[in-house]
Amino acid sequence: MFKFNFDVEAESSSDLEAVKSPFVDKKKHSEELEANEIQIIEWYQAERVKPIDNLIPTLDFYELNAKEREVGKARIRHLVAGFLLEDIKAQTHLDIKKAEESHSDLIAGVYEGGAKIWECTDDLLTYLAGKYEDDTFWKGKRVLDLGCGSGLLGIYAIKMGAQVDFQDYNKDVLEYITYPNILLNVDETLADEQKLEFLENKTSLYAGDWSHFAVLTKDLDKYDLILTSETIYNIDNQEKLLETFAGRLKPDGIVLVAAKSHYFGVGGGMEQFTDKIKLGKVFQTENVWQAEENLKRGILQLKFKES
Length: 307
Ligand SMILES: C[S@@+](CC[C@H](N)C(=O)[O-])C[C@H]1O[C@@H](n2cnc3c(N)ncnc32)[C@H](O)[C@@H]1O
Hints:
The chain is built from 13 helices and 10 strands. By secondary structure, it is of the alpha/beta class. A hairpin with a 6-residue loop joins strand 9 and strand 10.
């Protein structure tokens, strides 16, 4: 079984709670426990993250570092890879910085990969622009960009008229990458105060582990659409992810998962994830898109099973 390069830390009660999930393969889980193969990580608590104080004053800097891409009818502006930004490089305490120093895309439980834009995000953007090109689909919809990183999926949904929340494991990513990216895409004609008002009142950003996020937001309105890209790589986190879908999705809502068919060295992948969902009997699945290339990628749609 793959192990990330992390230290073993204190046991977390929420991880134990996840064990009771209907999505857990209990036989496999107890075998792993017996073989003492499970790494215990203390996952970060969830919290709502507000914009940092100098976000608006730094907008000019973000503008200089921005790229633009067209997705269907929408133009999305975003920062180039977070690693390259000078203000991130200058701050040694950030988890993003730790990942850069250890030349890792991921450090389980410390930094979960949100600083760069992963390729399945492009797949899902292209899919959304084709399948849901009509603005009327988006108007009034509540959308969650789960494991958002740069947040391009959520930003696309905002541009199409949805009300969007964003979640990423790392607070640093939300503060230094996701918030700037959202800011780069709000109506340019708005005054600075109005831009800040949009960020404070029209969207919510959450950091921390999925299991804690689902608890923190349990009393809030559920989502019509949950978009998530490249979030299924770690098998040990998949139950939490599925619990989050189940807890935060409206009864008639849709989840779209974009992912590779296999994550080498980590064990997760689309086929394995689909099999796990079938074990749980909560969701029905449909493969709605597949890449033709060597490294297979796909988009999986989940809906609640009709009882
Ligand atoms: C590989 S990155 C993908 C980022 C982005 N969706 C993309 O496609 O560019 C994985 C994302 O899942 C989030 N993530 C992974 N494990 C998580 C966990 N246990 N709890 C919360 N978020 C997690 C990370 O914060 C990160 O945003």
